[in-house]
Amino acid sequence: MYRPFLVVLFVIFVSACGTSQVKLTWDDFADVSFEPEYNAVYDVNFLMPQFGDQIQAFKGVQVRIKGYFLDISGSGEIFLVSKNPMASCFFCGAAGPETIIEVRFKKTPPFKTDQIVTITGTLELNRDDVEHCNYILKEATGQLVN
To answer: What confidence category does residue 86 fall into, taking pLDDT thresholds of 50, 70 and 90?
Structure first.
């Protein structure tokens, strides 16, 4: 009598685990510090990230974050999700690099800069490549919030 119920419950549990993602907040991404490190390619010191244990636990995990969509290239080539709108984002000096995430979409979305979106993707922690953001969401999809 209980066996069919348990089988159904197990199938639901396995299905949920296989498609779930972890919802993170911007406080989660603040689990990072920065240390100066010499870069021979550019012959200059860069502040390189030292990721904390909390954020490292999400490396390679499908996560979800809500923020402001930014097309920083202006031509649909480089996308970010930011804690802040464009006028006060990291590049304008009002925040740190932990407040932006580079997004590599599966398919280019129709979003416009400063729209509030929820982005889902696999989290990559980028410690060494100064050409890219410290946080990257790969194979990402997005949903417009406003």
So the answer is: confident
